[in-house]
Structure formats: C-alpha cells, structure tokens
Amino acid sequence: MNDDSSAYVRAVEERAPANVALAGKGVGSPKPRRAGLPVALSGLLSSKWLGLVVAVLALALPYLNSSTYIIQIGTDALIFVMLAVGLNIVVGFCGLLDLGYAAFFAIGAYASGVLSTKCGWPMIATLPVVVAASVAGGLIIGGPTLRLRSDYLAIVTLGFGEIIRITANNLDFTGGPNGLYGIPDFGDFGLRSDVAVYWVTAAVVCVAVLFSSRLGRGRIGRAWRFVRDDEDAAEAMGIHTYKVKFAAYIAGAVFGGVAGMLFAAHQTAISPPSFNFLWSALILMAVVLGGMGSTPGVVIGALAISLLPELLRGAQNWRYLIFGLLLIVIMVFRPQGLLPARAGEPKRRRRGGVA
Amino acid sequence: MTFRRVAVAATAMVLGLGLTACGGNLSQGGSADTGKGDIKLGMLTPLTGSSAAIGPHMKDGAQLAVDEINAKGGINGRQLSLTVSDEACDPKTAAAGAAKLVSDGVAISVGGYCSSATLPTLSIFNKANIPMIIPAANSADLVAQKLPNVFLLNGTGIQQAEAASKFVKAQGSSAVALLDDNTSYSTDITKRTDQNLRQLGVTVATHQSVTAGESDYSGAVNAVLGSHADLVYWTGYYQEGGLLIKQLKAAGYQGKIMVADGSVDEKLIQIAGQDNAQGVLATMTQTPQTIPGGQEWIKKYQDKFGTAPGSYSTQAYDAVRVAAEAIKSAGYTDGQAVMKALGQINGFSIFSGPLKFTPEHTLSEGGFDILVIRGSSFALNK
Amino acid sequence: MDHLIQLILDGLFVGSFYALVALGYSMVYGIIKLLNFAHGDIYMLGAFAGFTVLSVGAGALGGGFLALIVIMALAMVGTGAFGVVLERVAYRPLRNAPRLSVLITAVGASFALEYGIAVTFGPNPQVYPIGVSGGALGIAGARITYAQLAMMAIAVVLMVALDALVRKTRAGRAMRAISLDPKACLLMGVNVDRVISRTFFLGSALAGAAGVMAGAYYGKIDFLMGFVIGLKAFTAAVIGGIGNLRGAVLGAIVLGLLESFGVAFLGSQWRDVFAFGFLILFLTVRPTGLLGERVTERV
What we know:
heterotrimer, B: alpha/beta, Rossmann fold, 2 domains, 3-stranded parallel β-sheet, 14 helices, 14 strands, 46% helix, C: mainly alpha, ABC transporter involved in vitamin B12 uptake, BtuC, two-stranded antiparallel sheet, globular, Leu-bd (chain B), Branched-chain amino acid ABC transporter substrate-binding protein (chain B), amino-acid transport (chain B), transport (chain B), signal (chain B)
C-alpha cells in the first residue's frame, strides 16, 4: 500500500539534519504545502510566548471572572486539554489509533475515587496509585496488541474502553452504576473550593502541556514520528519500534490517568456513563481537528471542542453529526489538521541541546 | 535558558495576583439571591440525549405551577421565574448546568432527573447554599451523604421496593425473578426488593442484570425459565422492558410479569406487542389519571401546553409548589431558612398525598400503586 | 441437558446475525485492508431503511413473511448503494494515505451515520410496524420459534449465495485476485475501482439485510444499535481469521456460542466484557484467527 521503494531512501534522508523537517509534518502525504495564512498562523502558534500568554491567561481566569459557571466549565476545559494532549502523544506523535482513551481517564478517576472515599486517603496521596494503575492498564492492553497491525489496536482499545466501563458498572466497590460520590478535593487553601480545584488543575495541565510538547521534540519524540511515518524504515534504522510504541502508549495512559484524578476531584461524583465511547471519540476529534502532533493546535482544538457545546447548549445530536462529517472532511482535504505543527523543527542552538 | 526565566516570571505574576485578591470574592460562595426582582427557580432536566423526551414534560409541569402562583400574586409580593438548563442525563453536562444556575442566582433548584447526573450537582448547590427539591431522580445515594440541602420529592427505590414486595407477597408467588438493566435507578430497586422478599419469606429464584440498549435477552430469559419463577419483576426502562416481555412470552413463559415505574409508558405495550403485554402489572406513583380531581388538572395542563402531561409533569409541578410554600413560610429566600422550612412542612397537599419529609429528606409516604395493562394503556389494578 | 441444547440454539441464532455483519467486515478488509469502522452502522441504516419503507408502504405490502422479504430486498439495495457512495466519498480519496487517516475517516463516517439518523428520526427508539411471530418448535426440551428458524434460514441462504458468488463467478475471481495483489490486477487490466465498489455493495447489503431482520425480529430499533454489533462482528472476523469469508462465519458462530455459555455462567451483565476479553486473548494467542493464513505486513 505504501510507496515501497522510497521508504528506505526516506529513512536515510531522515538522518540528514537538513531534512529532519520531513518528520515534523502531519500525517498527510508529504506534498509541498503552499505558504499562506495557515503557515503564518502555525508559526505564531509555535511561538513560545503564545504558550506563555495562554498559560498566564488560564491561571489568571478567576481574576477575570470568578462566577461558579465560568470556573466550572473552565476546569472542564482544562481537563479536556490534558486528555487531548495525552492522546496526542499516542495518535499524533506515534500514529497509533487509540479509540478507548477514556478507559485510562476512568482508571485514574476510579483509582483516586475509591481510595479517597472508601479508604479515606487524601486526594494528593492517591497520585502514585493513579499513575501505577494507568501504567498497569497500558501494559495489559498494549502488551499483546502493539505487536500487531495498527488497525487491530484501534478496535482492541475500543473493546478495552467498553470493558473498563462495564466492569466499573458491575462491581460493588466502584459503586456500581451510581458510581462514587462525595470525593474530596485537594483542600481549599483558604479559597473558594471550586477556585482552588481550578488552580490545581490549571497548574497540573500547564505542566503537562509543556512536558508533552518537550517530550515530542526530544529524542524519543523523533523516534515516535519516525515510527509513525514509516515503521519499517524506523526498524531498519535500529529503532526498537515495539519499545518506542509502548513508551508512547504508556505516556498517554499516564496523562489520561492523571486527568481522571483531576476530574474526580472536580466533579466530586463519578459514574460509568462519564467514560463511554463518545468521550474517547471527542478527545480524538480534538486531536485531529487541532492537528495531530501539534501541541498548540491540539490545545486549541480541545478548548474549542470542550467549550463550543457550552455556548450552544442544546444541539447535542447535531453536534455529533457535524463532528463526524468534520472528521471525514479534515482527513480528505486537510489531514494535517486546522493548525498543524510547524513544518520544521526549531532552529538548533549552538550545542545542539534541546531548544 | 529563556524558558526558565519565563517560568519564574509567570509564577511571580500569578503569586502577586493571588496576594492582591485575598479577601475578594474568590473566597466566598457564588452569587446569591438579591432579595429584589423575581425569585428565580432553577431546573436541570434532560433536553437532549437519551432521555430528551422527559425534559419538556418536567419543564411544562413546573411552568404551570409558576404561572398559577404568579397569577395569585406571587410570594411575599415577588413573582417567580423558572430557569431551565440541560442535564442531558450526563454527569459532566449536569454539573456545568448546575454551575450555570448558581451563577444565574437561582434561589431554589427544582430539577434533577437522572440520578447519576444529579449526584455531581449536589455539592455544587450545597456549596452555594441552595436548597434542592428533586422531583424525579430518586436513588437512595442522593441522600446518603446527608447533605442539608437535598430533598427528594419522588418515591425512592426503598418505597417502591416495599410496595412491590408487599404486592408480591399478597399475590402468593412462590418464586420471583428479579431483572434490572444495570443502571443505578434499576439496581437500587432490585437490590432492595431482594432483601425485602427474603425477609417476607418469598424465594428469589434468580436475580439477573441485562445490558441496556441491547436487543437479545435470551440469556436472562433462559435464566428465568430455568429458575421456574412464577413472577418476573423488571425495574428498568420501557425500551428493554418491552423486548423482555416479548422474548419471555416467545420462550413460553406463563407466569406474571411486573414492571417498575420507568417502564410505565405506552411505548412498552407497542414494543412488547399488545397481546403479550395484557395483564402485565406495574408499580407506579400516583398519577393524575388515578387520583380524584386529577382530570381537572390534566385538562388545565392540556389547555395551556396543547399536550397531555407526561412522566414527572406532576412531580415538577409539585416541586415548584413546595418551593413556594417553603419560601412563604421562611419569609425570605435565604438557603438555610428555606431548608429549615422544608424540613418543617407537614401535610402540604401534593399528588402523592400529604407531604412530610423524613429526617433523611425523603417522602414519608411514597404513594405507590399497582397498575395493570388493559388494552393499550395502563389502568389501576382494582 | 435441555438447558445445554437451549444455550446452543440461542448461540447459533445470535451467531447468525453476527455472521452476516462479519462477512462484510471481512470482505472489505480482505480486499483493501481497510477496517470499515462504519460497517456496524450500515446494519443500523438497513434497519431504518426497512422501517422507512414499511412506514410509507405498509398498506400495500400487507404483513407477514413475504412483505419482510420484499422490504429486505429494498433495504439491501439501499444500504448497498450507500456503501458504494461511502467508499467513493470517504475512502477512495485516501487509498494511498497512511492507514491512520483512513481509520479516522471511518470513525467519522460511523459518527455521521449514527447522529444523522438520530437527527432525522429522533433519538428515541422506533417500534417496527411488523413483527414476525408464530409458534415454536421443541427440540429435545429446548425451544426455538419459527421466526428464529426463518431468520436463520434467510441468513444461511444469503451466506451460501455469497460464497458461491465469490468462488464460482468471474466477479468473485476478480475480488479474490485483488485481495492477493491489487497492483498486479491493475496491470492485468482488472478494473480495481469497480471491483472494490462491488465489494462494498455486497458487504453493505448483507449488513442491511441483517438490520432488517433484527428490526423485524426484535421489534425495536435505535440509532446506536449498530455500535455493539459492529464490535462483535469484528471480533468474530478476527476469531475466524480476518479476510477469510468462511472464517468469518465460523468465528461468528463460535462467538455466539461463547457468549451464550458465558452469559449462563457469569450473568448477562458480563457478556460484553467476556466477548471483548476473549478478543484480546485471541489476538495474543493466535492473531491470525482460526482459518487465517499468516499475514505478514508487506513493506
């Protein structure tokens, strides 16, 4: 199916610093892109200052408007950003389609929820367990399937998402269909409790976004994009593709788990319907819309997907119909997403260290 | 590195902002009722999603009560107004909707349909000191946290299970099969019925959960037939209930079938097929159709909205009336005062009978009746 | 003992539905290595197409079995044509794109179909205006209704017809050839695009037929009814060896029986966990399926 002959050639070229740019492109076929507004826009988006401005805005939101509603949907949106950035590692950087990402979200939410309500742990103490549980989930599901063809992974993760949701629904210690309620938050630090949760969330999400963006630019990030663009060539160049894919999958799982913990603290009550397939699909939508592999694009995509329905409260079925059509249209006409990653890697500094 | 300098600067900025704002509204609750203008009542109800059909029934029921009270001059000289927000039967949407209502300055919440979507809204209203009179959602988990602001106006699973168990015992059934659809509402009732029946000395032959949204229930049907139960109690919703009745009959089941209030809908009879549905029993709260004087109310509703009242129209109507009553006796809309007034209501007349809340804030009398399917509709079982 | 036979009969019945859907999955995958995620929703579309035909022309057709066959034929043509359009619009432009793009497109198509129907018909379930009912047959203490027998008979006829088409006809030979080597076929003068369209037509028509049968038998249809069965059909196709048509049928029957027994031992609420858990286990132990040959990822 791939244009076979060029695979090895591209692999060799990949090593030449001048052509590293190839790996930074979206998933689309590598045709030259016309310069224009999108490029200028994505250039602006890659600017470090923009990220900073967004981060400061996010942290300062309660000063601008501290109504309960704004804080509530602001926290929702930030958690969604974290999920999208986590899925971006799996889908955008490494090219593995995960259709059950909400499973890790559920694992994180339930791990912290069970420990804090049934065992009386403080919320922050559940973090190591949340991470461990997410990693375990990633190992169980990734172990057998990452060796197989990539399309198997899509359906198996989808099945896994359903397994986790149904299991949470059927077991007693997860609260059954009603789920868990009365989940504590991180403490109120002398503030209004929803504002306190907002700030904790905002801080965690800012760090997560930064971390994922830098992960994507580092050595492992290059390996991920190499595997995504041509797995066989990557293998031929000595990259242990299974390990690299595993790393992406586990990293994504941890992001999802931590986002789940934030969600549990924020909602105070969690139940299985919150972790259904629609969620997984919406997160994927955010990643695809924003531009797979482009952290700024994905953040903006996530904000749009999370906040738009609040602006258009009520038109739910239409929303999903439009999302579905958008997925097709984007893949056919603009596979790199609306705000793709900048074509090249950032200019190297003198000693070649990470920029 | 630039990045580090930038990070330090950002942290400093935020800290600075944080210090200046201490004592601002960041440490206080949400916007409260101002004491002037309309008294706002907030309602969360599903307007989209799987239960979208219910929303308009609840909204219209509440609006009817609001208009009636306003026509009589309102409460303490102030008019009522109703603000509706979508809960979509989804916890996240419901929480955002609740926050929106808090920000809009509602004095009392008179909504809540899906139990799992209502649970995360409890603490949001509680922190804002807003009483909740929940007309439809009725899981016992809602009151398990013993929050002072939560009052349930619908008969709970406990009461429905009691009514069902008593009826089953009176019928002289020897073995009962309990079926639920694995949602909170449904399992709550089966679990409690299971306990009650065992205490009453009735054998529970099998207890099965099916998955909502599927079509083939042969597994559950086989279990029922294999257990030789002579009465099946289904506590889920009508979509699956209809299929179950049909498949039970097709498999040759001869005993009685009883359904809970979520299945009391004429669609149940359509899906099951009218022949199969004849004689199916149901546990249901009192409806205008079954109480004296109810016909007048139905007519009033129909004249106003052009449709017949649906599920939970009456409860929503009552929720608004109860809210108004509590504000009237409290004298003003402060949350604490209204909660206290709600706890003290005794004998206020609502559809399910005279109202009095138990110390757990549930109805002291659930008012469940047994209905039976005759022809193409439900009728009171003598 | 009678219980055992009942479980087998139920498993076979459910398995025959899975098989009709799994065939389309397997056929499309075999030919263009595309996982048509929207396939389960075409099953749903079939049920709604039948519903529409019935609502419009119920009077003219009368009730009963013959009407069902007519409606099924109409719905099969409808869903088949839709499958062709879907391939043309959403999949063909991406035939040379990375696999991830096509998968995402398929997810999009699935979403668009589900919520397109939800917007058109409303989110609440619809009741099928005709049903198949009638007596039942006792086999060694187990029961199977005539309606179930009829459904299984239709399914078997459709499967045999498909098998004959693929193995005996010229068109079938072209399909098999393309699944072996599309480029060589192109060089040999086979109209690859047309054969792929035809494959989509056949697969979608079978799924549509299954949708109408489900609607008529169960009596209730809704816009999400294709989601779970799509997953199950994929599981069946993998168990049988994806790309292998007889394998898909075998896999579907195995899955139907497994679920039937799994439910009897674990309870209905664990049915899907059991099925998907089995899928993961199967992929670990024998990823090529029962009848599949070794697939090596071609470079």
